[in-house]
Automatic annotation (TrEMBL):
<keyword id="KW-0028">Amino-acid biosynthesis</keyword>
<dbReference type="InterPro" id="IPR023753">
    <property type="entry name" value="FAD/NAD-binding_dom"/>
</dbReference>
<dbReference type="InterPro" id="IPR028261">
    <property type="entry name" value="DPD_II"/>
</dbReference>
<keyword id="KW-0314">Glutamate biosynthesis</keyword>
<dbReference type="GO" id="GO:0016639">
    <property type="term" value="F:oxidoreductase activity, acting on the CH-NH2 group of donors, NAD or NADP as acceptor"/>
</dbReference>
<dbReference type="Pfam" id="PF14691">
    <property type="entry name" value="Fer4_20"/>
</dbReference>
<dbReference type="InterPro" id="IPR009051">
    <property type="entry name" value="Helical_ferredxn"/>
</dbReference>
<dbReference type="GO" id="GO:0046872">
    <property type="term" value="F:metal ion binding"/>
</dbReference>
<dbReference type="GO" id="GO:0051536">
    <property type="term" value="F:iron-sulfur cluster binding"/>
</dbReference>
<keyword id="KW-0408">Iron</keyword>
<dbReference type="InterPro" id="IPR017896">
    <property type="entry name" value="4Fe4S_Fe-S-bd"/>
</dbReference>
<protein>
    <submittedName>
        <fullName>Glutamate synthase small subunit</fullName>
    </submittedName>
</protein>
<keyword id="KW-0479">Metal-binding</keyword>
<dbReference type="InterPro" id="IPR036188">
    <property type="entry name" value="FAD/NAD-bd_sf"/>
</dbReference>
<dbReference type="GO" id="GO:0006537">
    <property type="term" value="P:glutamate biosynthetic process"/>
</dbReference>
<dbReference type="Pfam" id="PF07992">
    <property type="entry name" value="Pyr_redox_2"/>
</dbReference>
<dbReference type="InterPro" id="IPR006005">
    <property type="entry name" value="Glut_synth_ssu1"/>
</dbReference>
Amino acid sequence: MADPKGFLTTPREEWPRRPVEERVRDWDEVYVPGGLLPIVSTQADRCMDCGVPFCHEACPLGNLIPEWNDLVSREDWRAAAERLHATNNFPEFTGRLCPAPCEAGCVLAINQPAVTIKNVECAIADRAWEEGFAAPAPPDRLSGRTVAVIGSGPTGLAAAQQLTRAGHTVAVYERDDRIGGLMRYGIPAFKMEKHHLERRIEQMRAEGTRFRTSTTVGRDMDAAELRSRYDAVVIATGATAWRELPVPGRELAGIHQAMEYLPLANRVCEGDVERSPLSAQGRHVVIVGGGDTGADCLGTAVRERAASVTQLDIYRRPGAGRDEENEPWPTYPKLYRLSAAHEEAGELRTAPAAHADARLFAASTLRFVGDEEGRVRGLNLVEVDAGRRPVPGTERTLPADMVLLALGFSGPDRGDGIVAQLGLQLEPRGTIARGPDFATNVPGVFAAGDAARGQSLIVWAIAEGRAVAAAVDRRLTGGTSHLPAPIGPYDRPMTV
């Protein structure tokens, strides 16, 4: 604890964002380049060394937050990077993409703004790359055992890196043409530029991990045959089965799933195509779904110069402060938050019919309205109460010639053939069933991440990858493993 009075004398200050008018003209990250380092040491000083750091419990990775806060406040960046990487394979990802449940669990947050844990984490990770503290860590010797990892999202990459460093020969199979899963084609570049991903992939290659892209296991390669070629298989395909909106007019042209829309915009940034075939340019866009994916669609449509963009959220607008009775500290509260995309939409007034940040809260879609050619032209909605019951007299229609459905995901894609070819058992909700050691009903086959847990946060995905790697390592080495297992398959976030 470098400054015992830091939390009393220093106010919370976050990484500043670039001006809206500037950042919506490009796809670069929204933050001011270099704007974090001048403030991060004093922000780390705000960490209280509270004795019982609930931030540990709030983060499934068990990040050693007070330790690296203290090291950053003393500007010992190498030691801070070592402590950060001891629990997190990819802090530059979580420092940009995680909603920071650790900050909700910060003891200071009981009655003051929390420590900017996420910003400090990101600063350490970026400094580690700049100073060469993130060198490849290949194993001293190989075990002679082989592992196939299906899926290259954060769970698959974390599992692969841990197992490679333990000495096993690991091959990662990815159905897309590039490694990264949703971090590659689902997360817009303005939230995380892809060079952060490329650096980690090159590090993993240097450590010995092998990558097989453009290979859909279950279609291009039989899953049972793959199992016969490896000593163990980890299924980390994510929850890619998107939820539908079965209302009248769903068949109209111009209505797309978010994960049909976002990957094409990312491919424009990758240089694969000059213009997305689903570009929102000049269109009146309505996004159905109030979560992070919907916000990603919002920021993307704004950059594509949509004529208007409105986001519908079926929940009522949350308050600015924690509900101490229903969401007491240190649980993660549902608060009114203004993401970069909402800030942009609000300042540019993209949705005259909506609230200041382009969102319509407590709004439920009744039907889509089309023209004679079968294209969507409007969305009919109604306001709902806290029980999602329609409020009489509130029905209205928004102009919409493009609708994006961002309603979340229900589990792994059953159409790829992996479940059937391996004979995997499923949970009632559609996720892959597994035991306390992450093992499925098929010997040697393990399941981790959203494919088994269900849709969750990136920190849970990485924690699952690290934990399943320990379980696989125990199987391959006969019952012992030195790899950390931060969570079990049945662990869940703190709730009341």
